[in-house]
Design brief:
This protein is of the alpha/beta class. The protein has 22 helices and 33 strands.
């Protein structure tokens, strides 16, 4: 890995002070008041992600120092969460470094999200469902949500689901998805939500791994003007999967009916609302803080997805993050423009806003084209959104369609106090553009997190520094993030020197605890590279403020429109083609999606077909799904390799992106590189 000070300049890292803004991560420095929920002064901003330096240093050391960190999280746990049995111990650490927070505590996530708010919030909107594609928006109060959740939980029980059983969700962005998640949490079933953009074969891999008793799905999803029938994918995936046949609960959407989606129910199928209607009202089950809440699959180096497992202790960190970081008061409105199929959707569309008694906007649509680039601003005006989350890709799309942000002037977005971005590296130009257009009262805050973390890890800014373009700021309390030299394993403290991002153990509550059914892979993938640390799989560096810059993945994953996709999986898929003996899939920079995958492939000697590139694209669409956004496949005569046969993917990637590259001395045939240069027209 190269070590260079010029990277800061290369990535156009710019500093913009925000001295006008008064900001506190916590309202006071005495330990007695440190964790009080923040009372935001709206006019002043209430920007807890921008503390003063001493305040930040105090808070971080309390959250990390052995002895103090236990007290830190214990006091948050006791204050923020309703426990059936309050925990007596904060943390237990196994010899291998894995952690269990609040091991003796019992609680229920759905009770904390719903039941406990009823006395004060029964008629407050819990979920504001806004569909820009179906036109079927509706608001669901806390009372209504609790009714549906407790009856759906009873419905799941009647289908044989008990504590510890898995329930897989393959759902569009509809409130019923949140109902199903919360119902699982209520009875201790482990939900596993699979993003709707994955094709049947990838869905089958996840069904095989999770072995669900029940699958909850819908008859269709809506993608812009297109209606995507889900049931063919569900039925194919169940046939392909190597697991006992599950029951299937199907939501029949009015849009599906209107758009002519017909589906004949099978014997194993149940109707979603019949399940609710016939379900017994079910009370929340007390669960251990270390019982699993859910698994969510994410991509790594190989084609096998990793089932990240999270436990109920997650509730503590999520609730804390709402006030201490996102700066929301209980009862305010949060809009996470993501999908429940991704971790952001789990944490900040469903669980965290409800834990905090907020209204969560559940949005079905795209940032542009449904109907236009004004949709986010329209939503903010309509629901009086106080803070929002989106991906840089979405902001780039909005800017492309509305270069001067004229649409922001047509809508009253004065309720908004901050726009948080994550999911991929945020290019400084996009951040700067929106900071300018939205004005100083709505900072655009880049924060870094992963499926594994479940909540942001980095994203604090010093009050006297503010935004630094290209950086996601300073670590949040609970995260001892360090840059390590991948060869020597030593800590790098000098600015501008690239290294691996690692987090010193133990990890805070809410972080993944293991991989579902595969603790060995968990240890190997995350804990072995840097003993005593969690290896984040990202490379990055510090700047002179101590801010962290996340630059790229160190594994074979790429972030496409904020979605983590494994190039290993894409290569395995391309190699399914009978006439392709070799291929390389690399991430090529894209002005909209950040990075898109491109496949280079070699065709076997006797094949004369002219349509192989199209076949490759269709294969990926059919096996992985459209979400991979693979639109380019190029035939080459050979791939550059080392003498030991390793494909030089980094060289190919640099050529494709017009970056400088160096050929290793071990290259087998340097002339092959000419063919790659030609393929990319460089
Ligand atoms: N079900 C079925 N298909 C889906 C899907 C779903 N849930 N989600 C996406 N797809 C399909 C899309 O229809 C598209 O298919 P196509 O190739 O036939 O057009 C493909 O997957 C890629 O989708 P997407 O990445 O959404 O591209 P797009 O061109 O439709 O939209 C953007 C471009 C920029 C508007 C979109 O990528 C976007 O909103 N990005 C931000 C995503 C985000 O929030 N990420 C952060 C998650 S935490
Ligand atoms: P996922 O688990 O799909 O959310 O993807 C997580 C990965 O996305 C991280 O490991 C990073 O590679 C990338 N990522 C997320 N947020 C940021 C950010 N703010 N800046 C740079 N990269 C990010």
């Amino acid at each position: 890995m190269s070590t260079t000070l010029t990277l800061l300049a290369k990535h156009r890292i710019l500093t913009r002070p925000h001295s006008l803004l008064a900001h506190r991560l916590c309202p006071a420095t005495s330990s007695a008041t440190l964790h009080q929920p923040v009372r935001n002064n709206h006019a002043a901003g209430g920007q807890n992600f921008r503390p003063e330096r001493t305040e930040y240093a105090n808070l971080v050391s309390k959250s990390l120092l052995p002895g103090e960190r236990e007290q830190f999280w214990m006091s948050i746990a006791n204050r923020e969460i309703t426990w059936t049995t309050p925990p007596s111990t904060a943390l237990s650490i196994s010899p291998s470094g894995t952690h269990n927070w609040f091991p003796s505590g019992t609680l229920n996530m759905s009770q904390n999200c719903l039941d406990r708010h009823l006395p004060s919030r029964s008629s407050q909107v819990a979920i504001a469902y806004h569909s820009s594609v179906g036109g079927n928006s509706r608001s669901i109060t806390y009372e209504e949500l609790l009714n549906d959740v407790s009856k759906f939980a009873g419905g799941l029980r009647s289908l044989g689901v008990e504590k510890g059983d898995r329930v897989l969700l393959y759902m569009p962005m509809v409130p019923e998805a949140a109902v199903a998640m919360l119902a699982c949490a209520r009875i201790g079933a482990v939900h596993s939500v699979v993003f709707g953009g994955f094709a049947a074969k990838e869905l089958a891999v996840r069904i095989t791994d999770a072995s669900p008793k029940v699958i909850v799905t819908a008859d269709c999803g809506l993608e812009r003007a297109r209606c995507i029938p889900y049931m063919p994918a569900i039925n194919e995936a169940i046939d392909l999967a190597d697991s006992p046949e599950p029951s299937v609960v199907v939501l029949r959407r009015p849009e599906g009916k209107a758009l002519g989606v017909s589906y004949e129910m099978k014997e194993r199928d149940r109707c979603f609302y019949e399940t609710i209607k016939n379900g017994e009202v079910t009370a929340p089950v007390p669960l251990s803080a270390n019982d699993p809440l859910y698994t969510i699959y994410t991509s790594g180096t190989t084609g096998d997805p990793k089932g990240v497992l999270r436990d109920n202790a997650h509730a503590v960190h999520l609730k804390y993050s709402m006030s201490s970081y996102y700066s929301l008061e209980e009862g305010e409105t949060f809009f996470a423009a993501s999908d429940i199929g991704w971790v952001v959707g789990h944490s900040y569309i469903v669980y965290a806003p409800l834990l905090h008694g907020c209204t969560s906007v559940l949005f079905e649509g795209k940032p542009v084209g449904t109907p236009d680039a004004a949709e986010y601003w329209r939503i903010i005006e309509r629901y009086k959104v106080n803070a929002m989350f989106t991906a840089p890709t979405a902001l780039r799309a909005i800017r492309r369609d509305d270069p001067e942000s004229d649409h922001t002037k047509d809508h009253d977005i004065s309720s908004l106090r901050a726009c948080f971005v994550a999911g991929e590296r945020a290019d400084p130009d996009t951040i700067r553009h929106f900071e300018e257009k939205l004005g100083p009262s709505i900072p655009v805050v880049d924060h870094w997190w992963q499926t594994e973390s479940g909540s942001p890890m980095c994203g604090v800014q010093f009050s006297d520094v503010g935004t630094v373009g290209g950086s996601c700021g300073l670590p949040l309390p609970g995260f001892d993030i360090q840059i390590l030299n991948p060869e020597t394993k030593e800590r790098i403290t000098a600015p501008g020197v690239l290294g691996s991002i690692a987090i010193k153990l133990p990890l805070p509550p809410g972080f993944m605890t293991t991989l579902y059914n595969n603790n060995e892979r968990y240890k190997k993938s995350y804990l072995e590279t840097f003993p005593g640390y969690y290896d984040a799989g990202d490379a990055g560096m510090l700047d002179e403020n101590g801010y962290i810059h996340i630059m790229e993945r160190t594994d074979d994953a790429i972030n496409v429109a904020g979605h983590r996709i494994s190039t290993g999986l894409l290569e395995e898929t391309v190699l399914r083609h009978p006439n392709i003996p070799e291929c390389a899939v690399i991430g090529v920079n894209d002005s909209l999606k950040g990075v898109v995958p491109v496949a280079l492939f070699v065709v076997s000697g006797n094949c004369k077909s002219t349509s192989i590139a199209d076949d490759v694209i269709n294969l990926v669409r059919e096996h992985v799904g459209p979400v991979a956004s693979m639109k380019t496949a190029i035939e080459v005569h050979a791939l550059p390799k080392t003498r030991s046969g390793k494909i030089l993917r980094q060289v190919i990637r640099k050529i494709a992106n017009g970056e400088e590259y160096k050929l290793p001395g071990t290259i087998e045939d340097a002339s092959v590189v000419d063919g790659i240069i030609e393929a990319f027209g460089k």
